[in-house]
Amino acid sequence: MLKAVDLSKIYDDVTALDSLNLTVSAEDVYCLLGANGAGKTTTINLFLNFVQPSGGNALIKGLDVVAHPLETKKYVAYIPEQVNLYRNLSGMENLEYFSALAGNKDYTKEDFFAFFDEVGLRRVDAERRVADYSKGMRQKVGIAVALAKKAEVLLLDEPTSGLDPKASNEFSRLLAKLASHGCAILMATHDLFRAKESGTKVGIMNAGRLMMEVATEDLGHAELERLYLETIEG
Ligand SMILES: Nc1ncnc2c1ncn2[C@@H]1O[C@H](COP(=O)(O)OP(=O)(O)O)[C@@H](O)[C@H]1O
Ligand SMILES: [Mg+2]
Fold first, then answer.
1. Do 63 and 157 share a structural domain?
2. pLDDT tens digits, residue range 75-88?
3. How far is ligand 2, taken at its centre, from the CA of residue 42, in Å?
4. N or C terminus: which one in the chain shows less Cβ crowding within 10 Å?
5. Co-location of 10 and 65 in the same domain
């Protein structure tokens, strides 16, 4: 579903990403780990076609994102650390707006409430102004937008930073549910605990290189932490 082939990005004299090869299949929750500056955001931005690769290819459903910018964007939903919503509109109005932008014009109010229900946002909250939302609630609206768009690929950049443990747990469970419905998920995170809990694979990056990839079922929490520290400390 998502594939990087020798994907590289060089800024002046910084190699932000060095020949990345990675595959994320449907039903995978692939967690990218690594210290600040390791190249996680660059990887996500290359898949989003926000930045141009210096070499190699980023493919979504077999299509190169540079050659097929519009088509590949149709499949993708993006959740950054702060989901951008219109503060003065309600969650419902935001969802209506963003799903219309994505080209879906046939949904009824009940359909939208069903999306909110799926992400665990109550009707009364969906009708409140986003300005009064917690960060966890804004992230849920982001997922509701992804559901309404029927996104097959979800790219997330540190979506749980700053969430309390309960909100973070709910968010992770939501991602696992989306994956079980066939979504391919690539997420940059610093949360080793959540990566182990809700990820199917973790990739550890250091200085633009993917140093190792492991299936989360093959290791415990303590082992993942040890691998992580060994990898980023060289
Ligand atoms: N627009 C840019 N111009 C120059 N250097 C950049 C730019 N974006 C990222 N970098 C550099 O690329 C490297 C990887 O950054 P990034 O992908 O943001 O890492 P991460 O998300 O893992 O913290 C860092 O050294 C960063 O300083
Ligand atoms: Mg980053």
1. yes
2. 999 999 999 999 99
3. 7
4. C
5. yes
The protein residue whose alpha carbon is closest to atom 11 in ligand 1 is 16
Residue minimizing CA distance to atom 1 of ligand 1: 11
How far apart CA 54 and CA 158 sit, in angstroms, is: 24
Pocket test for ligand 1, best of 14, 18, 45, 228 (most atoms within 8 A of CB): 14
> Does 174 lie in the same domain as 196?
yes
Q: How confident is the model at residue 122 (pLDDT cuts 50, 70, 90)?
A: very high
Domain encompassing residue 183: 2-75+152-233
What gap in Å lies between CA 3 and CA 103, rounded to an integer? 26
Q: In Å, how far from its chain's centre is CA 109?
A: 26
Ligand 1 site-directed mutation target among 11, 17, 189, 191, most atoms within 8 Å of CB:
11
Residues whose CB is less than 8 angstroms from the CB of residue 58 and which lie 6 or more positions away in sequence, other chains included: 3, 4, 7, 46, 47, 49, 64, 65, 66
Give the whole-angstrom CA distance, residue 171 versus residue 136. 8
Q: What is the mean pLDDT of residues 113-140?
A: 95
| Count of domains for the chain | 2
pLDDT in tens, 141-192: 999 999 999 999 999 999 999 899 999 999 999 999 899 989 999 999 999 9
